[in-house]
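Hi C.,

You asked whether I'd gotten around to modeling the 317-residue construct. I have! Everything is below, sequence then structure, no commentary in between.
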Amino acid sequence: MASILPVFVPHEGCPCRCVFCNQNAIAGQTAGMTAERARKILCEGLSRLPEGSRPQAAFYGGSFTAIAETQQEALLAVTDEMIAQGHLSDVRISTRPDAITPEILARLRRHRVTTVELGAQSMDETVLLRSGRGHTAQDTRRAAGLVQEAGLSLILQTMVGLPGDTRGTVRRTAQEIASLQPDGVRIYPVVVLPDTVLYEQYRCGEYHALEPDEAAEWCADMLEVFLPAHIPVIRVGLNPSEDLHAQAVAGAYHPAMGELAYNALWYRRLRAQLEAGAGDILTVPARELSRAIGQKRRNLLRLREEFPDRNIQIKAK
């Protein structure tokens, strides 16, 4: 997979403020994005890559297609130039499902945008409403179809632990997202950040924040849907950073959230094998061995505790 150089445009273009959102804390950035700043960020990123690399530029953090068209054009003019110079390969953008039209997609294609990430977050209408998303599940279905019809790669972003979420709503969201056949998905467990509505709801006891291990189980529920459907899971959990670590008030922040989710998934698989009569030696693909054993051997120890009469071992095939 080609390298990605992210350029964050925190909150820009967003017509409403989701209850969980503090993009400045997530991105570690408070200043607005200009063409000059974008060029500087991309050039600095290129300087850290091997000579000859042609990474993809990515505009993240806000709703790119909802910002002023003049600002979109100014930012994309920077990437146009760097693509023409052979420094970048193409562009991806992140946006809202209700900020996609055929006309917008045609403009993006002219600027070598090849991937659109849509912040679906949930496909449950009540959860979307309580989260202040300002769009519907049908908006996501419509936008996903338009992106695919335009011949662009579609990535859908999902969240677990939103207000009103249950394991049932999360699994149903995964099933609906899978039915849209995206080219990849992201799974973000909710982290409670300061300066958000969710923070106030958490302080007042109106919102229950998932702990990391609990969130890992919910993420594993999604993985059980996406992986058999051969939908690539690009990321589980927010990208860890010192700023995020310092500001996370509660919720499912863990620097290895993805590993916790895959640990939970492998525990289920291995336990099912034992219950079905498998022998004491359980084999897994070599690349999955550490996930199957679990962090600090948690899966192996748990299985040995639950099956005390077995000499359980987990080995690579």
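If it helps when you're writing up: Residues 157 and 186 are 5 Å apart (CA to CA).

Thanks,
B.
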